[in-house]
Amino acid sequence: MNIRELLLEEHSKKRAQYICDGIIEERAQVSELLELIYHGDIWMRQRSSWPLELLAIKKESLIHPHLHEIIEVLNSSNEDAILRNLYRSMQHMSFTEDTIGPMYQVAFGHLADPKSAIAIQAFAMSTCSSIAHIFPELAHELVPLIESYYATGSAGYKSRANRELKRLNKFINQ
Predict the structure, then answer these.
(1) Between 171 and 19, whose confidence is greater?
(2) Which pTM was predicted?
(3) Can you give the residue ranges of every domain in the chain?
């Protein structure tokens, strides 16, 4: 299975699902998909991110061996497309013991950066919130950060913040 060729032929949910299923059935490799996200043109990055998100939802264990690499890319990349597309998938993930701290740290950094694009902040917020569900003490630092940008946030930021604050406040109020 040549993921690049499949993505060039068609961009659809059906095609994204076909690629995701191909990776699950071992006809393709997660590393091939990640290479397209890291090094493809803007269109290839977008097209590659959809199967990665589906994979994160359906069989995240296939992504786990690549988490250190993904965290490194999130930590070092300045390209919005890469950050947005990787965080879109990461918000659905659970993390291993050795990746949960670094993932939280890098996502928190992007959430706290006022120069980060709205979509990056939103997906980073959900990633941090998911981790805070495992470590509720993190909610005490995450909630004030989310609230600090709320007044000046876009409609997209406020929508995501409302959802995540509702979830996080359950931990704080227990």
Answers:
(1) 19
(2) 0.90
(3) 1-62, 67-174
